[in-house]
Design a protein that fits this description.
Length: 245
């Protein structure tokens, strides 16, 4: 998950950033609304955490401009404003959720995960692709009920592929998602990560789920229909008809 945190309180921003990184997220942080809008023009995020009381423009204005420009990145507002009018205004402008400070960090993370799931078309935390099962909240990967142990980078690659199912993702997109534009290694490192991920999944019994689109990148392959819906009985074999004399 890649997060844009828009928060001008340095202490609060540091605490949220550490919490999100511990949960495996890549976090970009800014203390201004104009900077946030500029970042949103150049990078793709899974969610925006937005304070309303910013030093340059209000968070309300950030949401308004995002939606006018047809940027549909989910927005979770973090605010000390307790009046119902603030919540109503933020939601009517296009925010997806509103949480009042101070908040429980576990609740914040749970709300973020739910918003991101819904934005990608998943109502439940568990996503199944044939024999593969991915829990987007606990970051667990199972094949045929057995856990597959992945590194943080391997899991992030698999999660991104699953959340963007049906899309071809370039190696540059993976780099951007994994490193957030900071201290990015050579692009060939993505091939190394994908190779190791494929081997682990294959050993567990989920071979071939990550496809290579030559010259473009990688994408998730839909399991064959027979893997998803095995027949309940053996088909009846009918002998061919004899030719009529």
């Amino acid at each position: 998950m890649r997060v844009l945190l828009v928060e001008d309180d340095a202490v609060a921003a540091r605490g949220i950033t550490l919490m999100l990184k511990a949960a495996g997220a890549v976090v970009d942080q800014t203390d201004g609304g104009e900077d946030a809008l500029e970042l949103l023009r150049h990078y793709e995020y899974d969610i925006v955490l937005l304070d309303l009381a910013l030093p340059d423009i209000e968070g309300f204005e950030v949401v308004r401009r995002m939606r006018i420009s047809r940027n549909d990145t989910p927005v979770l507002v973090l605010s000390g404003m307790t009046m119902p009018q603030a919540r109503v205004k933020a939601l009517s402008l296009g925010a997806d959720d509103f949480i009042i400070k101070p908040y429980d960090k576990a609740e914040l993370l749970a709300r973020m995960q739910a918003i991101v799931r819904r934005s990608k078309g998943f109502s439940q935390p568990t996503v199944r692709l044939g024999r593969l099962e991915l829990n987007l909240d606990s970051r667990e990967v199972m094949v045929d009920g057995r856990e597959v142990h992945l590194t943080g980078k391997e899991y992030s690659i698999l999660e991104l592929l699953v959340l963007r199912k049906g899309m071809v993702l370039t190696k540059e997109a993976f780099l951007n998602h994994l490193y957030g534009g900071m201290d990015e290694p050579e692009v060939k490192i993505i091939d190394v990560f994908v190779c190791k991920l494929r081997k682990k999944l294959a050993r567990a019994g989920a071979d071939g789920i990550i496809g290579t689109i030559w010259g473009r990148g990688y994408m998730i392959r839909e399991p064959a229909s027979q893997d998803l819906f095995p027949p309940p009985f053996e088909p009846i074999r009918v002998a061919p008809l004899s030719p009529v004399a």
